[in-house]
Amino acid sequence: MLIGNEYNDGRLSRFFFSSNLLGRCGFLACSVLSLQACTPPTLNVTLVQIGGEEEFDACPGVGRMAALPGSDAPLEVRARPEFDAPVTGYVDPGAFVWMCELTDDRAWHGVLYSHREDDRIPCEVSSPIAERQDYSGPCQQGWVPDETIVLFAD
After folding, report:
1. Nearest-5° angle of CA 87, CA 93, CA 96?
2. Superfamily for 49-153?
3. H helices of the chain, where?
4. Among 67, 68, 75, 55, which Cα is nearest to 142's?
């Protein structure tokens, strides 16, 4: 964490800048002396939904990420099911993901993924959850286009 000082009208104000958030979220400053609330900018995210069926797994399928033609680069995971949405992570081609949600136009999948080396996906969605809810488990989540994923098991 970087600490900076600024003099304003003869009084000392201290601001804390998070070097981690500075690059990702823009300018973040907190005034310690005035005890103002400090909230980072919000990212417009569509959380992946799980559950909703008493008899089926909370996420109904497992998919394998497909490489883009002529590339073995990691595939982008987005914050919302839109190409202009911010990239929130990357998944390697061939990696397994939980397929939890599909947009109405069938163009985007809401997925859960983990970067474990043994290809296990410990996302806690392999059992039924009766009520539909936002995913809040241990794995990363986001949205990938339909053409980048192949159903592996359901």
Report:
1. 90
2. SH3 Domains (2.30.30.40)
3. 19-25
4. 75
How is residue 118 written in tokens?
């043994």
Name the strands in the sheet holding 30-31, side by side, starting at the edge strand that comes first in the sequence.
2-8, 11-17, 30-31
| DSSP state, residue 104 | T
Site of tokens 């996302």: 123
3-state secondary structure 113-124: ECCCCCCCCCCC
Q: What single letter denotes the amino acid at residue 74?
A: P
Mean pLDDT, rounded, for 34-59: 77
Q: What is the pTM for the complete model shown?
A: 0.69
Domain boundaries, the chain: 2-31, 49-153
Dihedral angle computed from the Cα positions of residues 86, 92, 96 and 98, in that order, rounded to the nearest 10 degrees: 0
- The SS3 call for residue 140 is strand
Nearest to 76 by CA among 93, 62, 60: 93
pLDDT, one tens digit per residue, over 49-98 is 999 998 999 999 999 999 888 888 999 999 999 999 999 999 999 999 99
